[in-house]
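Notes, p. 3: input format for complexes.
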Amino acid sequence: MSQFDLTGKIVVITGSSRGIGKASAFELAEHGAKVVISSRKQDACDAVAAEINAKFGEGSAIAVAANISDKAGLQHLVDETRAAFGRIDVLVCNAASNPYYGPQAGISDEQFRKVLDNNIVSNHWLIAMVAPEMRARQSGSIVIVSSIGGLRGSPIIGAYCISKAADMQLARNLAHEFGPDNVRVNCIAPGLIKTDFARALWEDPARIAEANQRVPLRRIGEPEEIAGAVVFLASAASSFMTGQTIVLDGGVTI
Ligand SMILES: NC(=O)c1ccc[n+]([C@@H]2O[C@H](COP(=O)([O-])OP(=O)(O)OC[C@H]3O[C@@H](n4cnc5c(N)ncnc54)[C@H](OP(=O)(O)O)[C@@H]3O)[C@@H](O)[C@H]2O)c1
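Output follows (254 residues plus NAP):
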C-alpha cells in the first residue's frame, strides 16, 4: 500500500470550484479520497463534482456551497458532509480573500476585517467544527493553504500577508493542541500560481516577464503543482509532520 494512498478518506476542500482547490480535489480523488467540493456558488461546485464523479466513479465527490465568511454556512458544509459520508478525515482550508491592493494606511477597517475574518477566523471556525471528531478517532490531517506572502513583507498586499502569516501560526498553535490526539495541522505556502486569484499579474506580459525573472525556475506555478503537496499532507506519507509549512514557490524565497 502506498504511503500516499487515501482510499476511503473523506476530504473537505474549501474554494475547490477553481484553481488550487480544484486541482487538489482531483489529485486527492486520484489517490482514492472521496472529496467534498465547496465554494460560494453551488452550480460551479456541482460542475466540478460531476467532473470528478465522471472520472473516478459515482460517489467520489459531492458539492456543498458555503461562503467561508458565514459560520452557519460552514456548519452546513460539515453537516452535509457527515450526512453523505459519515465522517471527515482531512480538512483543506483553501479559500481566502484579498480585497485590497495598496499601502497599509489606505485599507479601510471593513476591508482589513474581511481579510482577517476570511483568511484566519473562518479557518479557526471550520477547524473547531471538524477537529473534535478527528481527535476522538485519534486520526486526522488539517491543511491550511497560506502563501509565501506570509513569510515576507509587502507594500501592496500587507493585510493579506498578515493573514497568511497568522495561518502559519494557527497551524503551529493547533499542532501543539491536537498533537497528543494524532491530529496534524500543516500549511502550504505557494508562490505565484496561474489561477484567477493572480490573473491581473500573469495576464500582463510586462509584469509576468518581470515576475518570472525573480523566480529561480523562471516561471510561475500551475495549480497542479500545489496539489501533490496537499496529497502528501493529507496522507500517511507526512505522518511525522505537524505545525510546519511547505513552501512551493519555484525558489523565490530562497
Ligand atoms: N494563486 C496564487 O498565486 C496564490 C499564491 C499563494 C497563495 N494562494 C492561496 O491559494 C488559495 C486558493 O487560491 P487560488 O489561487 O486557487 O484562487 P482561485 O483560483 O481564485 O479560486 C478561489 C476559490 O475559492 C472560492 N472562494 C472565493 N471566495 C470564497 C468565499 N468567500 N467563500 C468560499 N469560497 C470562496 C472560489 O469560488 P467562488 O468564487 O465560487 O466562491 C474558488 O473556488 C488561497 O488561499 C490563496 O490565498 C494563491
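The mean pLDDT is 98.
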